[in-house]
Design a protein that fits this description.
- By secondary structure, the chain is mainly alpha-helical.
- Helix content is 72%, strand content 0%.
Length: 466
């Protein structure tokens, strides 16, 4: 493993840190490395351990506060509105930044995180891009912006942000192979599948435990409905990525998606029960919560009996019903309250979102709630209440705007599936025709998809194909 960088090493890299503590610099590097590689490395003390020791090594190290607060915020499981401790930590960071001389780069980091905390994600990305223009190997700016673009559904920006700095990430720069993985993901999300796979495999040739590059290839196989290839790849590589605790649950989710695609629901539930459910209960992370809700809801759409599985998930999601950090998260939390038939949690989520959306101020997500977030949530509610026509009327007009809620193409596919199922189950001939039309579109984009073929057969059985 590359030695952790001290004050001089950061300075030599052109990324000066305003602290005289070599220990603080090394701990910053340790925390950044774990964030960049999606792994809590116990040999480094784990992310939480590193951040605690980092603050102790130099309590006045502003960028130490930036990474600590940033990792809390970027997880999207909390916010300064709800979490007084985090709000106080952000205030401490701002006060520190104003009371000491910092480099221009460090000042931009503070401002960007302040924007992110206020819900002004596009402005935060603009500031991180300013950093990257003059410091292309600033991994914290690169990764924060990459994640924020993902939340915004800014897929070309997510790709191009890495493309602009990629030439500077030569093999001698620490963690450069992981940047190949970030770039490959942006390429994949914008349908440059061949180039994306090439880069992901280059990254894996350098470090086979790179769970993010594995994840890119899982996406490619999913988007192309190459189920056999996808299943073989996940099985062959499992030992390499299963210890990447921040991403393993998500990779298992991808593995289970192939089984749902094939209609092998018991195999999907086995992965859920063995890996996805337990890992989520253990971590409580928002990514794992989203995967849980998405997985169960897709199985529910396929008519699979889920037993009491929703009851375990609602225990985790209930504490997030008033979050409204990302609308994408809200919709998945709603799936769990609908699945568990917890009407109080459903009502609480919808009413608190409606209230906040009345005065979004500059919060990007809340500004999207009236025209996107709330109609999408309502479509789920109508579908669950048996009002399929109403669900289609809410969902169909916004289907091309849903990308603005963020997430990956594979993750957002659950919304497309809901629309198809609602149209298929509608009493209206026009909507049944719409279902067939949507299935033809799906077939054109993902040829040989067993799920599409299955749904086409269902449509044909109910009504002769037109």
């Amino acid at each position: 493993m590359v030695p952790l960088r001290d004050c001089k090493a950061w300075q030599d890299a052109g990324l000066v840190l305003s602290t005289t503590s070599n220990e603080a610099c090394k701990l910053f590097d340790a925390a950044l490395t774990q964030y960049a590689t999606w792994t809590n490395d116990e040999s480094l003390g784990g992310i939480e351990g590193c951040l605690t020791k980092l603050k102790a090594a130099d309590p006045n190290f502003t960028v130490g506060h930036v990474i600590a607060n940033g990792l809390e915020l970027i997880g999207t499981g909390t916010s300064v509105r709800l979490n007084k401790e985090l709000d106080s930590a952000m205030r401490t960071m701002m006060t520190l930044s104003e009371s000491q001389p910092l480099t221009e780069r460090e000042k931009l980091h503070v401002s960007a995180l302040d924007m992110f905390a206020r819900g002004q994600l596009p402005k935060a990305c603009g500031l991180w891009e300013q950093i990257l223009q003059s410091h292309p190997t600033d991994l914290l700016a690169l990764k924060f912006s990459h994640d924020a673009y993902f939340y915004l559904g800014y897929l070309p920006q997510m790709r191009d942000s890495v493309a602009r700095v990629y030439p500077f990430w030569t093999p001698d720069v620490p963690l450069s192979s992981y940047v190949k993985g970030y770039y490959s993901f942006g390429l994949m999300e914008t349908n440059f599948f061949d180039r994306a796979e090439e880069l992901a495999r280059e990254a894996l040739a350098i470090n086979r435990t790179d769970a993010w590059s594995v994840h890119t290839i899982a996406h490619i196989n999913e988007m192309k409905a190459e189920v056999k290839k996808g299943l073989e790849f996940m099985k062959e590589t499992e030992n390499n990525w299963k210890n990447s605790d921040m991403l393993a649950c998500h990779n298992y989710w991808h593995w289970a998606l192939y089984f749902i695609e094939k209609g092998e629901y018991e195999a999907a539930l086995t992965i859920y029960d063995k890996h996805i459910g337990p890992r989520c209960l253990s971590s409580g992370s928002m990514l794992d919560i989203v995967d849980n809700c998405s997985m169960l809801y897709r199985l529910h759409l396929e008519g699979v009996k889920l037993g009491d599985r929703w009851n375990n998930v609602i225990k985790l999601t209930k504490k997030h019903t008033k979050d409204h950090v990302l609308l994408f998260n809200d919709v998945h939390i709603l799936m769990s309250s609908l699945g568990a038939k917890d009407h109080k949690a459903t009502e609480e989520l919808l009413t608190t979102l409606q209230e906040l959306a009345k005065a979004p101020h500059e919060d990007h997500e809340l500004s999207l709630a009236p025209r996107l977030g709330l109609p999408l949530c309502q479509a789920f509610v109508e579908f669950e209440n048996g009002n399929c026509d109403k669900a289609v009327d809410l969902l169909y007009p916004i289907r091309y705007q849903i990308v603005q809620l963020g997430g990956s193409n594979a993750q957002r596919d659950v919304f497309s599936q809901l629309l198809i199922h609602a149209a298929l189950n509608s009493k209206s001939q026009a909507k049944q025709n719409l279902a067939k039309s949507l299935l033809r579109e799906r077939d054109a984009m993902r040829p040989n998809s067993p799920m599409t073929e299955r749904l086409m057969r269902k449509a044909a059985a109910a009504h002769s194909m037109v």
